[in-house]
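Bumping with the actual sequence this time:
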Amino acid sequence: MFRRRSNKTMMGAVVLAASVGAMFVTQFVQVAAQERPALLFQETWQQAEEALGIPMSDHRSDNMYYLAGQSAVTNDALELGLYGDRSGDVTAYAHEGRIDLWTGLVGSPVAVTLKHRGSYLDLTGLARVRATVRTNNLHVLHPVVKLPDGTLLVGSQTIGTNGEFLVTEVAFGNQRWFNLDPDEVASGSEVTAPDLSRVDEVGFTDLAPAGGHGNAGWVNISTVEVYATAVAR
């Protein structure tokens, strides 16, 4: 037998439907607001003839090397930062059809960063750095940021690829951060909840001195992509 619903029941159903609809709208807005920032910049590196030189390292061969410096940067909007007592021995090599920065001759810990000339980087939320890297033996990479006041921080994320070039991503809100000495590239005290909404430089560090050519300990940093929101300087 057909029974007619009461107005009260129908009103409750309407309210429930409206609530569910509002919930889905809210979730949609939240998801849309959390979309990953677009690619802000990319660096692919290059070998410049004017950079040919002889590293200081005792592990060097008799050949000339492409020493890494600003001439290794292909993007005119970017500046290369090299930190560490022996960071001048970072070299540019060709592997797998790409150019990468190699630390094999660097006899100290080293950090490699990129700075956008026109803007700071907002590395909060879904900002990411994606890079093709290779690490060998016991060496690993950690993410590095430089704050506007000059403070260098190293993240707790460890990146190891066991001798293969692999694409890796770095998120910035899911790890611990520590002070990093710009000369010795040694980690110091932990920094709680650093403000990463205005970052001056971003990159990677190898906290161990390298061991030379062959199957020694070293790292390569190839193509770097930064997905972040630009903040005016």
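The tokens above came from a reply further down the thread. The first strand starts at residue 39 and ends at 43.
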